[in-house]
Amino acid sequence: MEKIIEVLGLSFSYTDEEILKNVSFTVSKGDFLSIIGSNGAGKSTLLKLLLNIIKPQRGAILYFGEDIEKFKGWQKIGYVPQNAILNLDSFPATVLEIATSGLYSQKIGMKERKKIAREYLSKLGVLDLEKSLIGKLSGGQKQRVMLARTLAANPEILILDEPMAGVDQEASQNLYGLLKDLNEKENLTILMVTHDLLRASNFSKRVLCLEEGSLVELDRKQIEHELFHKHKHP
Amino acid sequence: MQKAFLVGMTLSVIIPMIGLVVVLKRLSMIGDALSHSSLSGVAMGLIFGANPIFFAILASVISALLIEAIRRKLPKYQEVSIAVVMSLGVGLAGVLSGFVKSTTDFNSFLFGSIVSIPDFEVKLVLGVSFFVILAFLFLYRELFLVSFDEQQAKMAGVNVYLVNFIFTILTAVTVSVASRTVGALIVSSLMVIPVICAMQVAKSFRQTLLFSIFFAAIFMSAGLLMSFYLPLKPGGTIVLIAVLVLVMLFFIKRKS
Q1: What is the pLDDT of residue B104?
Q2: Which residues of A touch B205 (CB under 8 A)?
Q3: A58-63 and A3-13 strand pairing
Q4: Residue A192 in contact with residue A198, Cβ under 8 Å?
Q5: Which of A34, A183, B42, B83 is 20 to 30 A off residue B26, Cα-Cα?
Q6: For residue A148, with 0-12 CB atoms within 10 Å meaning exposed, 13-18 middle and 19 or more buried, which class applies?
Q7: How many CB atoms lie within 10 A of CB A18?
């Protein structure tokens, strides 16, 4: 299976205390991998390292076998940041303008961009809102627009940071289902960072848990134990 | 008066163009910082007996680059960069103004002198505006992306550093030529208020840009006309009309 992301022995600290300790994992083509962890576990730090915003003290990150420092194919990476939808409230653009902007790296004309953007807005069920201002949409609708925008650029992997932040329960459930469909039917590789273990385990193929700087892959039994433990002691 | 209208209408295009991106990048006070910095350039120009506008542009560009440099170092505290540079600009302008022989010349930069603008400065405004409009249209998509989300823009292949650098220069140049005409104390308001007015009525990003220019042109023409027939300073009149229209729009939007 083609390896899209390889994280090898990653360690990082802001001060003396290590946030990430020798973290290693691989994301292969067709994976739907969730990384869960409580607040302060280091999920955001890990994402910043994956996006080359910060550099690790030790370890390496490879994208398609190439070191992240030399990697030039960032257009292959679709990224939806945490709280992306919160920033949309005051941005004066229509759904179509937002979706079309995701096709910047494609060397095609505006007519073609709009056509592709509309295709993905339709896939995500928000085409009828194309002329609406993005700030007027609900959290779930905004997230669908952001996903359509990101998917329209045809990425090889989708990296999502807390994609359901600001989205209500019902909309979250639908969106998770949509992501699962995209993964299973279109073989889209997804790496999702979330604190929602229940949904992560229901919808993703693999779940990694980040705790006290270490990353551990959870099997079904461990997931059930974690969920039971959380239920008893919320 | 014809020259004043020509300059006014030209500035009505470029100031809100820059203002739209400034507002979306949450840098609304940058106009104030740069206009105050340009005053220190004006003072320097007047002290050395050179054309104050060129020194104003130079001071504004240096300040804009300084703001951008600090902003990159402290991305979570962008407003700090503006506050620091504004303080530096105000301080320098204050100290240097004490050495300026002709206070009338210096004061004309505070509130502008659009109705008595010399031919050379008209040509300068037109030339600078042509350049700003061209650059803005050329970088329209990049500016949209950078205003939307810099990280995603970077991943999409936008040279965010270069776009921000160019936009910083455009902002500095626009603010300094506008300061000469509408006044250093006024230009910041003209960058922001037409954009906020536009956001109350526009239904898309493109409409927001066009309405911003429309509102700026209305404020400029109304302000110039009123100052022509009444004993009012044009810069201040333009801004007061802008604020009045904004309040009315808020009121109408709330009612509807």
Answers
A1: 66
A2: 92-94, 97
A3: antiparallel
A4: no
A5: B42
A6: buried
A7: 17
CATH number at B148 reads 1.10.3470.10
B contact residues 212-231, partner A, Cβ 8 Å cutoff: none
Structure tokens at A200: 């992560």
DSSP assigned state of A76 = G
d(CA A85, CA A89): 7
8 Å CB contact of A87 and B149: yes
DSSP structural state of residue A69? T
Instruction: Region of A213 please: left (phi>0), alpha (psi -120 to 50) or beta.
Output: left
**Cβ–Cβ < 8 Å for A42, A20:** yes
CATH code: domain of residue A94: 3.40.50.300
CB of A14 within 8 Å of a chain B CB? The answer is no
Cβ-defined contact of A79 to B157 (cutoff 8 Å) = no
Domain that holds residue A126: 3-232
Q: How confident is the model over B131-162, as pLDDT tens digits? A: 999 999 999 999 999 999 988 899 898 999 99
Residues 6 or more apart from A31 whose CB is under 8 A from it? A4, A189, A190, A191, A205, A206
Residue B99 exposed, middle or buried by CB count within 10 Å (0-12, 13-18, 19+): exposed
CA-based nearest distance B164→chain A, Å: 17
Instruction: Calculate what percentage of chain B has a pLDDT beyond 90.
Output: 39
Q: pLDDT band for position A150 (50/70/90)?
A: very high
Tell me, what's the pLDDT at B235?
A: 84
Residues of chain A found within 8 Å of residue B157, distances taken between Cβ atoms = 74-75, 104-105
pLDDT score for A152: 94
Instruction: Please tell me the pTM assigned to this model.
Output: 0.88
CA distance B5 to B218: 11
The alpha-carbon gap from A221 to the nearest alpha carbon of chain B, in Å, equals: 37
Per the prediction, chain B carries an average pLDDT of 88
How far away is chain B from the Cα of A24, in angstroms, using its nearest Cα? Answer: 24
User: Tokens 């006290």 identify what position?
Assistant: A212
Q: Is A207 helix (H, G, I), strand (E, B) or coil?
A: strand
User: Which structure tokens are listed for B119?
Assistant: 């031919």
Contacts of B145 in chain A (CB under 8 A): 101, 104
* Number of folded domains that form chain B: 1
CB A95 within 8 A of CB A132: yes
Q: Letter for the amino acid at B190?
A: L
Structural domain boundaries enclosing B49: 2-255
Cross-chain Cβ contact A79/B155 below 8 Å: yes
Q: How many domains does the structure of chain A reveal? A: 1
Average pLDDT of the segment spanning B186-202: 93
Across the range B198-203, mean pLDDT stands at: 95
pLDDT at res. A127: 95
CB pairs under 8 A between A and B: 62
Q: Does A94 touch chain B (CB under 8 A)?
A: yes
